[in-house]
Sequence to fold (663 residues):
Amino acid sequence: MSELAITVLQFGLLLLLWILILSIIAAQGRDMKISKRSRTRVPRTAPPAPSAEASGGTPATVHHSGQQPRPRPRRLVVSEGPLVGTEVELGSAPIMLGRAQECTVVLEDDYASGKHARLFPQGSRWFLEDLGSTNGTWLGEEQLTRASTVEPGDRIRIGKTVLELRT
Amino acid sequence: MSSAETDHPKPRRNAELVLLLIALVIGIGAQVLVGLTMEDQIDQRYWIEAAVQVVLAVGFHVVLRLRAAYADPFILPIAVTLNGLGIAMIHRLDFTAAYEGVADRQLVWTAVSMAAAAALLIWLKDHRRLRQLTYISLLVSIVLLFLPIVPGLGRDIQGAQVWVSIGAMSFQPGELAKITLAIFFAGFLANNRDLILLAGRKVGPLTFPRLQDLGPLFLAWVIALGVLIVQNDLGNALMFFGLFVAVIYVATSRFSWIAIGGVFIAAGAVLAYQMVPHARNRFDIWLHAFDPEIYGQMYGSHQLVQGMFGLAHGGLTGTGLGNGNPQMVSLANSDMIIAAFGEELGFIGLGAMLLLYFILFSRYMRAAVGTRDHFGKLLAAGLAVILVLQVFVVVGGITRVIPMTGLVSPFLAAGGSALLANWLIVAIVLMISNAARRPIYAGPMLNTTGAGAAGTEDPLSSDQARTETTAEQTGVTDAAGPAADSASAGSQGGQR
Fold:
């Protein structure tokens, strides 16, 4: 190999190193940014409703018969309390809320019980039930006494934490 | 609402594959360049080594696809790049008189480490299971740290007694103790965080926690530090202490810990200077490196000064792989490998490598920010701090920012135990980032167990909802919209 070719290859190596770095940064995109939406403290009263087409890709199939499709909640967002801004993607598995570490959403809230409440899907709706917590679970202004449906935008209050479903 | 669609986390394994290919081209290309410059030809061995690296990296990628599809896509390519560059530089130094066959050993250790990391990913599945090992890992840390001073097992190499030899193999158990101690700190603080935060005595603006809450933590720290001082391993002592301060700061978000930590480090440095001759020697080398007397003496500043000459010789673009004289520095392929890279790849190359370390650190921290459980947050942050402190202590030592201590640069330096530890850290962080980014989804099964199953809703308010639910479950088309449904449909209509 000629001296020149090797020198060119050496510079090529340096160039490639920087290409790797730039492509990593480009691929990261906005990943390092904590999204603005998750920082909003004021719960939105009227969450925008996506059309059924836009919300396609959700695991469970929803049947519609020409009716206006109901927006399907896709995220559980903490809107007040110590964990404000935390978001959880909703799939079709039930979500356990509480302070115990095995909960799906671990609440850092001194007024929450270990296993405080459970959110679970049934059909295309999500239901909330209290699991015998000490301080109770509120849906809107009412304390939960039995499992009831949660619509996007409803305030779920557990201790000092307020959560809501968003589409 | 297409933004909701784009916000949905994607596995991003394809992006990882592309970056992984660039990483492999860099590592293997550096290796081939070394061969071209030093031997003027590329024989079969190079292709075998290249094939091994490709198989390892792609194999790890496949494991991620199968086991942790949502794991961070940038960690693996960066680790592979640094590891490949390290092997190339070690191979290049094997052509000098001082070293022989180190590169092959490093490649074998890379294979072992990546296989162990992949096995950990497959076997552990969820990082939260490590939480159950909180106190066991404290015990394991103590055993690992004490092993080298057990007579008959330990070996003393260059003043630091950190090695264990079993037959022909030698191993640094302290490297693995980093991981187990990080697990212990994270588990302990995740359990006792509230107690440390709330119960305590206030002195001025600082709140000091009660001693009994911190007891086990300080015990762990004192044991680690004591053993390290006995073993003369100051670099690791600094790192464990930094890890301790950083994790407790992350757990409590109290700035006072940083202040207390700074005071302790300063006091420790003064004490070490007064009491430990080894440390005093390092300080002299640091402060008076260019003093001819210190330069000339045994274990003097020769290594440090030659390393700096090497960095200066490299300049902006470096001499090119194989054209410099990095072998002038003792321990050029382990402790001083950064100086060798600075000489042969120049500022541009070394800057890129430091930036890769920085991105790797930021990805570890991103996993910590993203994950939902407290233990995972603390563990990922602790592992990130381990990485960044190692890089700081090594690069700071070589560039004379801080006194030289014997730490190795992660992934680059020759040394099997450090490589194994760093790959295991990669596996744990990948697991945590997978937990952070994956949507909660367990398949199309609906939950019908427990008190929340059908029949327990309020018969007045959600009667219709129930009929609708059953209709959907049996596959019948949607019943007439119930009250809540028409309300939301109405709001939707209003928006249009």
Chain B has one domain: 10-437. Chain B has a mean pLDDT of 81. Strands of chain B lie at 154-157, 160-166, 169-171, 200-203, 206-209. The first helix of chain B runs from residue 2 to 7.
